[in-house]
Amino acid sequence: MSSTESNVIDLTWYGHATWRLRSGEKSIWIDPFLNDNPSCPIKSAEVEGCDAILLTHGHFDHVADAAELANRFGATLVANYEIVQWFSANHKVANGIGMNIGGRTTVAGISVKMVPAIHSSSLPDGSYGGLAGGFVVAVGQKTIYTAGDTCVFSDMSRLATQIDLAILPIGDLFTMGPEDSLEAIRLLQPRTVVPSHYNTWPPIAQDTDKWAQDVRLHTPSHPIVPIIGSPFSF
Ligand code: NI
Ligand code: MN
Q1: What residues have their beta carbon closer than 5 A to ion ligand 1?
Q2: 110 near 138, Cβ under 8 Å?
Q3: Confidence of residue 6 (pLDDT cuts 50, 70, 90)
Q4: What CA–CA distance (Å, rounded) separates 65 from 45?
Q5: Ligand 2 center from residue 174 Cα (angstroms)
Q6: DSSP bridge partners of 10
């Protein structure tokens, strides 16, 4: 593998809030929801690599396939303390980093800070899932903010000094919708922004052509609307 290949950083959307971040030879999955995700083109058995899993909160549409991937690959599960304990007790996940809002850790060669989100976080069996969060990830020279499920909140302007890429929910109903995402983008000022958590089911259907046009018109950021399953660089 050449040095350029081993330095590659890219991101792939797998539908809903499921993302794969690749950094060199490492694969980091965010909120893996594959098998029962109507937008996802692959099943969890087809996942070829997983070094770490970041979970923003305990809801099924974010954690559904985390145990299978963690156990098959021996991947490290990064989430709030309550969620990591639950996966250890209920799914025998051996490697976990339980953290909480404001904390930072290093996993699979990337730095991960857990930041606030305004949302709920019960686990699939109803167990208490701690507080919902988002992550500020530093990978190579790039900073990524993945918001998780949240509404817009004014402290977004203080989450990081420079964000290269922001992943924001736009589906509405359970999270901020497209209009509020414009305010989030103005607060965050990311260089590039991608939408998430939409079009999985009819209640969160959104028009991303209109969203991207509004981002270009009303914010300083560059929108990318990823194609499901196609890696992109940023
Ligand atoms: Ni949720
Ligand atoms: Mn959700």
Answers
A1: 59, 149
A2: yes
A3: low
A4: 10
A5: 7
A6: 22
> Closest ligand to 16 CA?
2
Residue 195 near residue 170 (C-beta atoms within 8 A): yes
Q: Is beta strand 192-196 parallel, antiparallel or unpaired with respect to 165-169?
A: parallel
Ligand nearest to the CA of 119: 1
| Residue whose token pair is 């901020």 | 176
| pLDDT at residue 1, as a whole number | 44
Label residue 8 by pLDDT band (50, 70, 90). confident
37/29 Cα distance (integer angstroms) = 15
Given a contact cutoff of 8 angstroms between Cβ atoms, the answer to whether 96 and 126 are in contact is no
User: The domain 3-228: what is its CATH number?
Assistant: 3.60.15.10
In the chain, domain spans: 3-228
How many Å lie between the centroid of ligand 1 and the Cα of residue 70?
20
Query: DSSP string of 81-149?
Result: HHHHHHHHHHH----EEEE-TT-EEEETTEEEEEEE--S----TTS------EEEEEEETTEEEEE--S
The string of pLDDT tens digits covering residues 151-180 is: 999 999 999 999 999 999 999 999 999 999
Burial environment of residue 187 by CB neighbours within 10 A (0 to 12, 13 to 18, 19 or more): middle
User: Would you state the pLDDT for residue 147?
Assistant: 98
Q: How far apart are CA 176 and CA 227, in angstroms?
A: 21
CA distance 74 to 63: 16
pLDDT of residue 3: 45
Which two structure tokens, joined as six digits, stand for 178? Answer: 């497209």
